[in-house]
Amino acid sequence: MGIRLGKPWQRLDNAAIEALPSQLGVYHVADSGGTVLSVGYAGAREPFGMQSALRREIEQLGPAAAQFRCEFTSNYRSRWDELLMLHLADHGELPAPQRDQAQRVGRLSPA
What confidence tens digit (pLDDT) does each residue in 47-91 have? Predict the structure, then answer.
């Protein structure tokens, strides 16, 4: 098992969000072509966990946000850092909503 978030993409709509448990975790939001627009986490300050976080992403990203994949974990901050480092290694930069994190996160070289 690697560190990549390999879950299948799901359509990002109200029905899919309502079907999720209100738990903590990490996620990717992408456009319809699979380009990751945001790497985020649902933390302890989200009133309804993953549901709240994904609803906020829809509001911020607008219609470009077409699909998501997520992973539930209580270690959401360290897992988020891993996903940010991986995205940075793969693409050379972070998605626009997370670019302010570039100086904070470490670097890795996935095989």
Answer: 999 999 999 999 999 999 999 999 999 999 999 999 999 999 999
Taking a C-beta distance cutoff of 8 angstroms, is the pair 11, 65 a contact? no
**Phi then psi dihedrals of residue 55, to 5 deg:** -65, -40
61, two tokens: 């990203």
Residue 27 DSSP SS3: strand
pTM: 0.94
Return the bridge partners of 69, or none: 28
The three-state secondary structure class of 89 is: helix
Q: Which of 20, 14, 62, 19 minimizes the C-alpha distance to 37? A: 62
